[in-house]
Design goal:
With 126 residues, this protein is mainly β. The protein has 1 helix and 10 strands; from the N terminus they run βββββββββαβ. The longest helix is centred in the last third of the chain and has 12 residues.
Length: 126
């Protein structure tokens, strides 16, 4: 089994935290964040529960959480999780949204996971 590793770095200029989880087999109990999370599953398969819906996320899937979205996940196969993500504060996201759209309003992700491999951008619920 791979050695578990965690690393995080905060970029002052971008005001974004980037992090990596490698070799993770442990489940993550239900929790939420006060910031946006955008991540990529590099390896592994997990059962993700978010907003009372269940998803299976796999290699290549993008994970999207709004601030306050309660979510949990656990390993669903024999391959441990390798994951990279960004944590983006609401204030930073507001600045980015204003820069891109010209509007002073926070975006909201409608789904917590996107699977490019599916062809239609959806993740099948379990």
């Amino acid at each position: 089994m791979k050695q578990e590793a965690r690393a995080a770095v905060y970029d002052e200029k971008l005001r974004v935290e980037a992090y990596r989880l490698a070799g993770m087999a442990q489940p993550f109990p239900a929790h939420f964040h006060a910031y946006y999370v955008i991540g990529l599953v590099e390896e592994g398969e997990r059962r993700l529960v978010c907003k009372q819906r269940e998803y299976v996320i796999r290699r290549g899937d993008i994970v999207l959480f709004n601030p306050g979205d309660s979510h949990a996940c656990a390993q669903a196969g024999g391959v441990v999780l390798d994951y990279r993500g960004f944590n983006i504060a609401k204030e930073v996201m507001l600045d980015l949204a204003r820069e891109v759209t010209g509007r002073h309003s926070l975006p909201g992700f409608s789904r917590p996971a996107v699977a490019p491999r599916a062809g239609d951008g959806t993740v099948a619920g379990v």
